[in-house]
């Protein structure tokens, strides 16, 4: 694996921090459950964690549980495109297509940039920057952005 193209997962850093600071393993599971259920967008909203731990995690890792922030949204009757930015500044596009037959599909990015270099594509013109982390890929699908559409 080309480590120059692979960012380290934020969730792995959080898990390591919790273990190194002597927190029980179930604390990490509580965080993941809150993130997956979209019940919390910040560490402070994960009320299953002690207030001191919520404050510590916010200070060390930033307040948001989500590694992506939507910076541009385009919508019409058949399409939703969201441009996210990662904590490292990488831009990632995710697209949801709505079909007349009543079903939807989602195109999820696995890389920041693209190595193909197609002349008609803005992402290709940037070139391959890096592979996304597992939490960045999952966050595209699970981000609260989609619950508001």
Structural notes for this entry:
Residues 1-6 have low confidence and may be disordered. The chain has a four-stranded antiparallel beta sheet with strand order 1-2-3-4. It contains five helices and six strands; from the N terminus they run H-H-H-E-E-E-E-E-H-E-H. The chain folds into two domains: 7-61, DNA polymerase, domain 1, CATH 1.10.150; 68-148, no CATH class. It has 149 residues and is an alpha+beta fold.
What are the main properties of this structure?
DNA polymerase, domain 1; 32% helix; two-stranded antiparallel sheet; 149 residues; 2 domains; 6 strands
Topology (SSEs and partners):
Blueprint (H helix, E strand, L loop, with lengths): L9 H11 L5 H11 L14 H11 L6 E8 L3 E8 L4 E8 L5 E4 L3 E2 L9 H5 L3 E2 L2 H9 L7
Antiparallel strand pairs: 1-2, 2-3, 3-4, 5-6
Computed over alpha carbons, the radius of gyration is 17 Å
**Helix content, binned percent:** 25-40%
* DSSP strand count: 6
Number of domains: 2
Helical segment tally? 5
Q: What portion of residues belong to β-strands?
A: 15-25%
Structural class: alpha+beta
Shape: globular
Major β-sheet strand ordering: 1-2-3-4
Described by strand count, sense and barrel closure, the largest sheet is: 4 strands, antiparallel
Low-confidence stretches: 1-6
What is the arithmetic mean of pLDDT? 82
What is the string of helix and strand elements?
A: HHHEEEEEHEH
The end-to-end distance, rounded to whole angstroms, is 37 Å
């Amino acid at each position: 694996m080309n480590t120059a193209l692979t960012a380290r997962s934020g969730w792995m850093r959080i898990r390591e921090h919790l273990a190194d600071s002597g927190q029980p393993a179930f604390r990490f599971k509580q965080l993941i459950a809150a993130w997956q259920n979209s019940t919390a967008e910040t560490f402070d909203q994960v009320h299953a964690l002690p207030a001191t731990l919520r404050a510590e995690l916010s200070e060390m890792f930033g307040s948001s549980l989500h590694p992506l922030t939507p910076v541009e949204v385009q919508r019409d009757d058949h399409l939703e495109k969201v441009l996210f930015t990662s904590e490292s500044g990488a831009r990632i596009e995710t697209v949801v297509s709505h079909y007349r037959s009543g079903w939807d599909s989602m195109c999820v990015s696995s890389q920041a940039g693209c190595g193909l270099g197609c002349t008609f594509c803005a992402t290709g013109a940037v070139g391959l920057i890096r592979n996304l982390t597992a939490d960045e890929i999952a966050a595209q699908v699970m981000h609260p952005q989609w619950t508001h559409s």
